[in-house]
Specification:
Pfam families: DUF218. This is DUF218 domain-containing protein. Keywords: Membrane, Transmembrane, Transmembrane helix. The chain has about 240 residues and is α/β, with parallel strands linked by helices. The protein has a domain at about 65-225: Rossmann fold (3-Layer(aba) Sandwich), CATH 3.40.50. The chain has six helices and seven strands. The protein has helices at about 30-65, 90-105, 125-135, 150-165, 180-190, 205-225, and strands spanning about 75-80, 80-85, 85, 110-115, 140-145, 170-175, 190-195. The chain starts with about 30 loop residues before the first helix and ends in a 12-residue tail after the last helix.
């Protein structure tokens, strides 16, 4: 009889691999979490600012391209510099566009608006009125509103003058980049307003002047929307 020999391996002889302990992750100090939150907040704020400014600049550019010749109660020309009664090149370009609209029967009345600086003999409104009369617009078809030293004051003065006469709709004439801001202000004053800007003059001569105009009006419009105060900046183009 064949004997079978069994080798018995004692449990104590089994080799057990040592259980490896994963070292605990080091605790991050509370300051690092705060720093991350601050960085994310700053990044989010910057992103919102970029979107807001970029979106506003796009709207300034977009509305600048609109010329609405719909019939209105009045054509309003925003004032600009004048020299002893002679409109500057910027102002003359606006007045020329207003005259063009008048000849197209867009409105029966042209309103010029703007006060004067210390030492001036003429207001911007009077200078504009004389310019239009010289080109054949009847005096009784022109209303000179001789107040306003900035855009908001001018729009407020025009709005009051129109309400006094029972007028409510207006086509606004200024430089292209100015269009969105003046339209916003006029509508805030309760006017039914749209724009037909000039396409000539220093404000549109060069790419540089166009870029400066968009940048300037983007800042001015944002300032108005936040504070409801005007923010008129000097033109970088020659007046």
């Amino acid at each position: 009889m064949t004997e079978r020999w069994h080798t018995r391996v004692m449990p104590s002889a089994l080799t057990h691999p040592a259980t490896a302990r994963t070292p605990a992750a080091p605790r991050r100090p509370r300051g690092s979490a705060l720093a991350r939150w601050v960085r994310r907040t700053i990044a989010g704020t910057v992103l919102i600012g970029v979107v807001l400014v970029g979106g506003t600049a796009f709207r300034v550019w977009q509305v600048a391209r609109i010329a609405d010749y719909s019939h209105a109660d009045a054509i309003v020309v925003l004032g600009a510099a004048q020299y002893n009664g002679t409109p500057s090149s910027v102002f003359a370009a606006r007045l020329g566009q207003a005259y063009h609209l008048y000849t197209k029967d867009v409105a029966p009345l042209v309103i010029t608006v703007g006060g004067k600086q210390v030492g001036d003999n003429y207001t911007e409104a009077a200078s504009g009125k004389n310019y239009l009369e010289d080109r054949g617009v009847p005096a009784d078809h022109i209303l000179a509103v001789e107040t306003g030293s900035d855009t908001l004051q001018s729009i407020e003065a025009v709005s009051a003058a129109m309400r006094d006469r029972g007028l409510g709709s207006v086509v606004l004439v200024s430089d292209p980049w100015h269009s969105l801001r003046i339209r916003t202000m006029a509508r805030d004053e309760g006017l039914d307003a749209w724009t037909a800007p000039t396409r000539t003059g220093p404000a549109v001569y060069t790419r540089e002047s166009q870029f400066h105009g968009i940048a300037r009006e983007t800042g001015a419009l944002l300032w108005y929307q936040i504070t409801h105060f005007s923010a008129d900046f000097k033109y970088t183009a020659e007046q």
